[in-house]
Amino acid sequence: MINIEKRTLDNGLRVVVHVDRSTPLAAINILFNVGAKNEYPDKTGFAHLFEHLMFGGSKNIPSYDAPLQRVGGDNNAWTNNDVTNYYLTLPADNLETGFWLESDRMLELDFSEKSLEVQRKVVIEEYKQRYLNQPYGDIPLLVGPMAYKVHPYQWPTIGKDISHIENATLDDVKEFFFSHYAPNNAIMVVSGNVDPDHVFKLADKWFGDIPNRTIDKKTIPAEPEQTEERKTSVERNVPANMIHMVYHIGSRTDENFYTTDLLSDVLSNGPSSRLIQSLIKEQQLFSDINAYISGDHHPGLYTVTGRLLPSTSMEQAEQAIHNELDKISTEKVSDYELQKVKNKIESTLVFSEINFLNKAMNLAQFELLDKAENINLEVDKYRAVSAEGLLDIAQKTFKATNRSTLYYHSKG
Amino acid sequence: MQLHRHTAPEFKTVSDFNLLPVQIFELDNGIKVHLLEAGSQEVAKIDFLFPAGSIQAAKSLLASVTSKAMIEGSEKYTSAEIAEKIDFYGAYIGQQTVFHNSVLTLISLSHFLPETLEVLEDIVKHPTFEQKEIDTILERRKQEYLIESDKVKTLAARAFTQNLYGKEHPYGNFVAQEAFDELTRDEIVDFHKKAYIPEGTHIIISGQPGKNIKSLLNKYFGHKWNTNSPLPDWKPEIFQGTEKEVFIPKADALQSAIKIGRPLFNKLHPDFHGIQILNTILGGYFGSRLMTNIREEKGLTYGISSFIMTYKHTGFLVISTDVRAENRELAVKEIFNEIKRLREETISEEELTLVRNFLSGDMIRNFDGPFATSDNYRGLIDLEIEPEYFNDFFNVLMRITAEGIKDLAQKYLQEADFITVVAGK
């Protein structure tokens, strides 16, 4: 059970506090409700570029990192399709330094041409390092546009085309900031060895006078239902063939989320799962295989991806995966197997409650989607999943017309 | 109330460092158990350190494949049954082979420890090592090896250690592709018998394993199930590579991986604590000299860092980064410039204070809770170092001076001692 207290400031900032006395540290996690899906198709990669710029100094504080390091703190951030999340940890005594730094960059960045120029270059190098200069690194760039024809999930967080980053101007950056970075578009979670009343006082003091802003609520087009099977084939200089299949599923807040999540666990969570036992160990077709769901805020994807052994043909590999998906769509999962994946989820949830920073990040997500208290309902929601439910979702999901397949051939 | 947004709030510096107490006891057969009992969740992590590392194995892949193959079938349970049981209890088994030992890790809800330890006992004492399972592991490992060989970062890292220690020395990390076809089941069975033994084995427990953990461990692991003595902890001559510059071409590379480093020493060296602080200033945190110059001022790379690696008998310092080919020369030049600045200029009190405060906060992070503490503590076992070692580091950190940093830089950051490896274009 994770205990929380929360308040909403007059400017709309939601503040959640979780006390964990087992640590001498504290965490501040600030989540902005803006991700790659909020970008315009001709200006992609902005949410992520922005994450970099948030470390380039703010209105009243020239450097973000040094003052935090000076009080023993550390920080980082990440961006995905839906949100941009900033977090820091520091000795709990120095909590106010975190409030000072975070509130100033929410108030206003120091928009500088120099910082933009440098971070453009850094992001371009990141693009190369992660997506272009790694074997299989370009898979996300290939799968997105195949599965999504309309919805912005078609482009990856780093951007659709590197020219969008190269051409980003300071005006673009300012506009993005003032239409997405605002107290009324953010969630702040403070966790660790803290006192809730003190946290609320600090929140008022440092964040209370930041004006709320008009958020760019552009309509994000819904992805129409897929009605035909999609396939793409590429050839690359890699040592082994890969196959990557995706099916459309519901969103994180869909009532079937928990069933869909367990449906991926039956296939590939843990060494006893079906894909590993059947396709790696018994049939010896793959050297690696995985099934997972995206958990996106808008309808997402169920992915099955595998790396083929040299003796396996692409057709064999595809057929073998289809056979497993057919099986789970026609035969009910046994009580034992269902119990096993539920046990695994329960222990994963217990492990996730060990670390105070991890709890802060999770609480921010729950507060954004509905309310932070829901974090404590997770176990019951997974426990309620039935074998009939799994069968139903499998049948609805694993249809050829709902599938996009990437055949990634080795040139060798 | 007037807010002073230009002025930093008051703060406290970390003035002391408290390590979780480590309780040490022995099982009936002499296995040494290190217990870090703490935490709010009923969860335990148990690491078994067997004297079964790649040094004891003295043959490529033997130690790591033995460790992987152990969980793929025992006398009582088939490979699939082991996987089923561990998953059903929501537990995890992990394996890691390092030079001087192999680590088998169990993470389990504490109330399932009797069940999960019972499975682990059969894995450790009676693995069957079926040929089919060995083949599967070798085939997967070979493919992973080939994929890794496609990354400039890996090519550079391999060339770096091979040049530092030579291909013959296990620290050189050299694996020939033929090794995947040459390993036999007999060698694995024999190595298991000689290395997965009570003598020389350590167990580290962290979390809340419950009051009866000692009797549980005695029940499953406290007997003399094998009376062999550990294999010799081979300490070969350390070959020093003579190539100062190594270039590994990869025509289709979009970036070049750079590794610049020098041989050092192990954790027992009197300068070890000091050089960790020097390394932090150079490239060990986000505000480091290298990050500031090469990423934040010049935008040449997504990341650059320097890092100290230690083994039982030696160690090295290495600076790593990935840059595009046309920036390679500039990046290398700037790396050596930063090294030179540390030798020639005295660090300002402001920067030294910042690094001191950052590192003391980092120590609290690295030792926050039983699991983080046990990961750090594990690194002391090889050399039988007392946990007091971490307090010593904290004391050095509090007292080191700007002059002391400069002396260390003059001693250990001489260009002539460094080798430069580039993979890519």
TrEMBL record, chain A:
This is Insulinase family protein. Residues 15-129 form the Peptidase M16 N-terminal domain. Signal peptide: none annotated. The keyword Protease applies. Keywords: Hydrolase, Metalloprotease, Protease, Zinc. It holds the Pfam family Peptidase_M16_C. Belongs to the peptidase M16 family. Gene3D superfamilies: Metalloenzyme, LuxS/M16 peptidase-like. Residues 168-344 form the Peptidase M16 C-terminal domain. It comes from Carboxylicivirga linearis. The keyword Plastid does not apply.
TrEMBL record, chain B:
Residues 183-357 form the Peptidase M16 C-terminal domain. It comes from Carboxylicivirga linearis. InterPro entries: Metalloenz_LuxS/M16, MPP/UQCRC_Complex, Pept_M16_N, Peptidase_M16_C. Residues 40-143 form the Peptidase M16 N-terminal domain. This is Insulinase family protein. It comes from the Bacteria.
